[in-house]
Amino acid sequence: MKKKNKEAAPGTVPGLFGDIPAAPPPAKKSGLLAFSYSKMSLYEECPLKYKFKYIDKIKEEPKFYFAFGNSIHTALEFLYSVKAPPFPSLEELLEAFRTDWNRKSYLEKGYRTQQKADRAYEDGRKMLTNYYAHNRASFKPPFLVEYSTDVEVDGLLVRTISDRIEYLGSGEIEIIDYKTGKNVKRQPLQLYMYQKISELDPRLKEKIAETYGERVSSVKVRQMQYYHVPTLEKHKFERADDKEIGAFWERVLGVAEAIKGIKFDPTPAEQACAWCDYKSLCPHFFGGHPPPPEALPASTEKIEALVDRYGRLKERMEELQAQLDEVGESLGSSAKDGSEYAGSQYTAQIKKRSKWEFKNREGVIKVLRDFDLYQKALTLTLSGISTVLDSPDLTDEARKKLLELAVKKTATDIKVVKKEGLI
Predict the structure, then answer these.
(1) What are the φ/ψ torsions at residue 61 (nearest 5 degrees)?
(2) Sign of dihedral through CA atoms 310, 312, 313, 314?
């Protein structure tokens, strides 16, 4: 759930109040594999999915839960990014959340409708308000916030990003990782990665000296926790012992070795594959083609199941229509009128036409009535009013009055045909 997504000037990343200098990318050294817990987790879910995402660089569809988590993380980063009190007010915290939330449209965030995005935004405001009230009495400047580091170990360049690190003295630290999804029982494997890398990171010793004036020979993780922001629950874990870390690291090295060995066979699983963005590309599970549409229910299926099935299909239609509108608008703005364009699978013929939009309904009604045109416009649909405008019987004065209320726009008609030989 890391960030940030807004485009910024070269050499910078977007901050809450303008662009800030970007951290230099990790140095690429021969033989080192860039690695992280999220990469390991994805490979263990499905090696072929890892290949599609990290090697072939095929983008996934945006996920609303990532967008939501990113904005909550950004707001909490803003809250704790102070060197000394006072802390930001609740109003300032919520404004930071709003600013980050509005960086992208609801489609870019992965929501199917604006209404769903709006509901999530209100949920986020309530979540942060509760967090602020619950923790306000114990606010103190943390040691580090959103601390990103890259450490070389065993032929890997491992990146970790810690949401918050508290210094406990004598070289000991506590690592806190925010969670905003479901409050499920979580395994501490991600925290094991934080422990392993934090204790190997030479920069942490330097930062302890810079911040607290304390020279330490080593850094040791005393405890770790997942903080579930929606419920304000803390899931704490004591420091993992050498045996636990050793077993975890063997697992890490096994995944890394498989990646280096170009082992990307899929591991099909019904539930995971059903939601995978790459399923249409997977030759092993779907034959390289999208799965068939959901089967129609038996006539004896209960009405409750039919209701749920109808709702799911309706949501899919809304999502696809929103994506279709967005892509069609982009295609129309890029294409020339009357032209034909060819992709790898389809050809498209583009035609553009003018259309009228009337936002001031009451004003249009008044003009139509003043000139005795109301019945001719029928139900005051756009096509009805356009018919009136195109009528040769319309007086110049009436046309002028209507045009003052009209906005002329360009509509794009797109006809696509699949290329021969493609199934």
Answers:
(1) -65, 145
(2) positive
